[in-house]
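Lecture notes, continued. The same structure-token format from the folding unit now serves as the input rather than the output. Read the line below as a description of shape only.
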């Protein structure tokens, strides 16, 4: 008798054996039916060894209570005398509530755990078929399936089989079940069965012989007419049989479901016919199939139905599978699919997602499958649908480092074991790690983690997930370095041919050159080579995620050659995570940014600075340029220093633009393309203005010292004045001067002219830095007029001779350098011209329209596609700008918001004033931004300016990547451009040429 207030000895023993609710368990032990074994010490020891002793005891009580007297005695006697049964039965009951429920409903099924023969230890399809042989309908099939599953689970939780063997047994049981279900369907429809030959092809984990406890069983159905019968009728009969098979396995009955049978991997997915002939399958795969479909076929295996037809199917599709890596954008397609899977995981579940999350099972499977498809073309030893077998074959062939493969194997086994035990508990399809403490405790104990099971489980899980995250990219790229490196004894090298295959699959056009670069960068025993070997596997992946991997790798070699001896370069790339990725993006996105960087490689430091990609303001730039000019001894040296600053800032701007457009692993791409355009236009305008200010100071100082005999100002025009310069734009300007007091006008004019000539000369001197071309053709009288005029001369000209196009051009005029007061007075002079009181007259409007129509017909380059010309084409820059400028000239006098040199600001002001409706304003803005980005993209990619899309395929793809289009979608890019500019042109027709204005 227990003294009140004192714990019983049983309570204490239960606590010591791992029970979490000893009070409830003590009451269960007092159940009369357990009287014969209650005091036997082996029972508590066995219960304490289970994943959840409380759950195991509850399950045992339910089973014992469900037996009749004789069967109960037999069960209890066997339980205490036969350790194999005791371990198996209690192990299952402690790990699986669902199988405990099954045993309570079918109390005699405990006998399935008694047999301990050799065949029982490692059953195959034949043994499972015998276990299902008596099933005649969906209900009895479910009962027989669970009985077989009971034995698999028992071997699993007792450690008789490891994870891989358990997964293979589950796949064999699924095979036997599909065969049994097909037999039931045929028995129900003998006429259908007689009309066709039907084969069931397992896909996914079932096909790969690595199934979970609860998973969709992916299949494809292939059929042929029996004995030369009618194909149409045979396909209908086969479809009915296949659909019935799926219902037998998938529908809910009093015994629940077995698992869903999923045929969505078939050609055309849910939209395609459930069953096809072999020739129909082949026609689809040869013409329409996407990359992921060949990746899925990697695991195809005939499992049920007509064995000959099933084998014919696999033999027919196999060559197509191993040619998949030769498809354009193969690696990019596979990696994009993996990213899409991760992106679709709900944010709240990412950290608990065991299968699909970063560092999860899918990362291992994708990495292994990618390598198989690349190298399986020439190595049949890699043709396995089983992940771990394929990983071992990859390591044996040198395609993966042995140490990496061993770590990946260990991590995959642990993560799959976690997945198995999570699903086994309730036999539900889930890949989420539970949050409840009791569930985590049971899970940890089921995996052998008995000391602090929750903490140990989380630690092990995170460790293995970290290994997978670290290795899943490295697994693909690391052996490329081993192919050109000295290997440790016993290691197998990736052959040059295999390395070339891998590089080709990554998109490298010249694998041989790429291997030479890798060898040059990573060979040797120096610390520099060791750091390169650490960096390159990741860099190769980033290069591959661009339109020109070859250029990226070559550029990296050149930068490394130039900076390799500096102490900070490799340390920057190794220690500043963003620097290496930013450099990879910049080097592989086109020619302009690498050219700028290679002229002064030390600018790579910008890429590691958190604020390094933010353009500097005009005041900061002008201060730096003027200080550099002041330190120089000659005018040439002064402008060389100014142009050096410009080159560095151009690199900063191009790098920021590229990285903002591509995005990085830590920072998504800029979602607003208009913000990128404004940032580039403002940055290039500011640095050109600062450079011109420096050239002006140098020209003046060289001949006149600190003071020029005449005040002098530079007025920005066109895109320069509009703060909309692209990378390849000239600087359109006007030069204005005003003689100082007491200075002769002729002397002042000569001084101003000499300054202009010297500025232009200095800015165009041949150096390593990009030239800054100054264009003054918008001056009065154009090329026939003087290069520079006095303010009075401008006033006289504009008062007497000014044409409407000159007034339109002055809409973009803004002071950029020189005497600020003189510049302000020039702007005051021209305001009445560009914003005439009461607006433009009808004659002036007609003249502007006439000029625009003439420009469209005469200035379009011969042979250019007007639908793709960004400047003069339909709905391009000229269309939008002339429409906005006409609005400014008509309404600027009364609407201050329109008095701006910037197209987008003026368009927004016109919309705010009600001159353009919301939809039309949005269309014009979108078209202008897109056309501007195309021009910027062309310059970034080709290194020279262009107004239309490149004709070269690789350059076109690079522009597409810059604009946010995935590989293989340049057609979509061109179609989107045409569609948007077509809509913009319709708005221009209404607003510019119509009566609206």
């Amino acid at each position: 008798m227990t003294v009140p207030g004192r714990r019983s000895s049983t309570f204490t023993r239960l606590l010591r054996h791992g029970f979490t609710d000893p009070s409830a368990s003590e009451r269960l032990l007092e159940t009369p039916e357990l009287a014969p074994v209650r005091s036997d010490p082996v029972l508590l020891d066995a219960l304490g060894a289970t994943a959840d002793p409380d759950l195991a005891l509850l399950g045992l009580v339910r089973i014992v209570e469900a037996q009749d007297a004789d069967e109960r005695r037999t069960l209890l006697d066997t339980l205490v005398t036969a350790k194999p049964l005791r371990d198996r039965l209690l192990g299952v009951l402690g790990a699986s509530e669902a199988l405990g429920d099954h045993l309570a409903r079918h109390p005699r099924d405990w006998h399935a755990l008694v047999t301990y023969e050799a065949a029982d230890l490692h059953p195959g399809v034949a043994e499972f078929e015998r276990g299902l042989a008596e099933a005649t309908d969906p209900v009895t099939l479910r009962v027989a399936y669970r009985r077989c599953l009971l034995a698999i689970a028992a071997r699993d939780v007792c450690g008789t089989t490891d994870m891989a063997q358990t997964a293979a047994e589950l796949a064999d049981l699924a095979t036997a079940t599909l065969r049994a279900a097909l037999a039931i369907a045929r028995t129900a429809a003998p006429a259908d069965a007689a009309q066709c030959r039907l084969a069931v092809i397992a896909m996914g984990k079932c096909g790969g012989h690595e199934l979970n406890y609860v998973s969709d069983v992916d299949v494809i159905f292939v059929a042929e007419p029996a004995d030369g019968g009618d194909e149409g009728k045979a396909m209908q009969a086969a479809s009915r049989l296949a659909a019935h098979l799926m219902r037998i396995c998938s529908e809910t009955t009093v015994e629940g479901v077995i698992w869903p049978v999923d045929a969505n991997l078939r050609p055309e997915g849910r939209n395609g016919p459930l069953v096809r002939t072999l020739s129909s399958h082949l026609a689809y795969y040869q013409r329409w199939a996407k990359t992921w479909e060949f990746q899925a076929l990697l695991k195809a295996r005939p499992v049920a139905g007509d064995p000959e037809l099933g084998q014919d199917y696999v033999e027919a599709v196999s060559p197509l599978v191993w040619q998949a890596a030769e498809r354009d954008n193969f690696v990019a397609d596979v990696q994009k699919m993996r990213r899409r899977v991760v992106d679709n995981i709900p944010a709240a579940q990412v950290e608990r997602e065991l299968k699909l999350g970063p560092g999860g099972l899918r990362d291992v499977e994708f990495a292994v499958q990618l390598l198989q498809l690349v190298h399986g073309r020439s190595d049949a030893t890699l043709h396995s649908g089983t992940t771990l077998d394929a990983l071992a074959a990859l390591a044996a062939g040198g395609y993966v480092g042995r140490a990496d493969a061993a770590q990946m194997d260990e991590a995959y086994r642990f993560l799959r074991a976690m997945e198995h035990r999570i699903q086994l508990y309730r036999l539900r399809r889930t890949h989420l790690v539970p949050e409840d403490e009791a569930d985590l405790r049971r899970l940890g104990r089921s995996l052998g983690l008995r000391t602090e099971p929750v903490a140990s489980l989380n630690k092990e899980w995170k460790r293995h997930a970290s290994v997978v995250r670290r290795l899943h990219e490295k697994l693909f790229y690391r052996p490329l370095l081993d192919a050109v490196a000295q290997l440790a004894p016993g290691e197998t090298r990736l052959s040059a041919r295999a390395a070339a295959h891998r590089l080709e699959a990554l998109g490298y056009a010249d694998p041989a050159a790429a291997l030479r670069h890798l060898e040059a960068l990573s060979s040797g025993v120096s610390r520099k080579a060791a750091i390169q070997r650490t960096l390159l596997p990741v860099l190769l992946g980033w290069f591959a995620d661009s339109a020109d991997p070859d250029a990226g790798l070559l550029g990296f070699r050149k930068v490394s050659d130039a900076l390799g001896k500096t102490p900070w370069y490799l340390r920057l790339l190794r220690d500043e995570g963003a620097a290496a990725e930013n450099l990879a993006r910049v080097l592989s996105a086109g020619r302009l940014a690498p050219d700028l960087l290679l002229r002064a490689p030390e600018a790579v430091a910008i890429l590691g600075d958190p604020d390094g990609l933010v353009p500097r303001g005009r005041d900061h730039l002008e201060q730096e340029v003027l200080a550099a000019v002041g330190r120089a001894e000659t005018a040439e040296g002064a402008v060389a220093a100014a142009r050096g600053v410009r080159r560095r800032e151009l690199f900063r701007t191009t790098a920021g633009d590229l990285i903002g457009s591509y995005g990085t692993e830590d920072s998504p791409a800029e979602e607003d393309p208009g913000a990128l355009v404004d940032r580039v236009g403002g940055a290039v305008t500011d640095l050109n203005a600062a450079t011109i200010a420096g050239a002006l100071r140098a020209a003046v100082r060289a001949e006149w010292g600190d003071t020029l005999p005449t005040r002098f100002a530079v007025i920005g025009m066109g895109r320069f004045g509009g703060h909309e310069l692209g990378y390849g734009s000239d600087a359109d300007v006007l030069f204005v001067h005003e003689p100082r007091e007491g200075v002769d006008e002729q002397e002042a004019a000569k001084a101003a002219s000499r300054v202009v000539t010297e500025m232009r000369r200095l800015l165009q001197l041949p150096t390593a830095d990009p030239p800054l071309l100054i264009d003054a053709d918008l001056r009065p009288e154009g090329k026939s007029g003087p290069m520079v005029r006095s303010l009075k001369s401008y006033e006289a000209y504009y008062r007497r001779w000014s044409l409407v196009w000159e007034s339109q051009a002055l809409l973009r005029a803004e002071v950029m350098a020189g005497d600020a007061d003189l510049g302000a007075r020039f702007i005051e002079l021209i305001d009445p011209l560009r914003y005439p009181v009461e607006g433009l007259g009808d004659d002036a409007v007609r003249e502007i329209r006439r000029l625009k129509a003439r420009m469209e017909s005469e200035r379009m380059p011969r042979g250019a596609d007007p639908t793709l010309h960004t400047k003069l084409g339909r709905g391009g820059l000229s269309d939008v700008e002339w429409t906005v400028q006409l609005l400014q000239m008509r309404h600027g006098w009364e609407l201050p918001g329109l008095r701006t040199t910037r197209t987008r600001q003026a368009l927004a002001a016109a919309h705010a004033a009600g001159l353009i409706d919301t939809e039309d304003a949005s269309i014009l803005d979108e078209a202008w931004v897109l056309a501007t980005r195309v021009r910027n993209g062309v310059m970034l990619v080709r290194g020279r300016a262009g107004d239309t899309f490149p004709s070269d395929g690789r350059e076109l793809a690079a522009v597409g990547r810059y604009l946010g289009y995935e590989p293989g979608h340049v057609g979509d890019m061109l179609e989107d451009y045409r569609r948007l500019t077509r809509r913009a042109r319709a708005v221009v027709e209404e607003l510019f040429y119509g009566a609206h204005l």
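Point for the exam: Residues 673-704 form the longest helix (32 residues).
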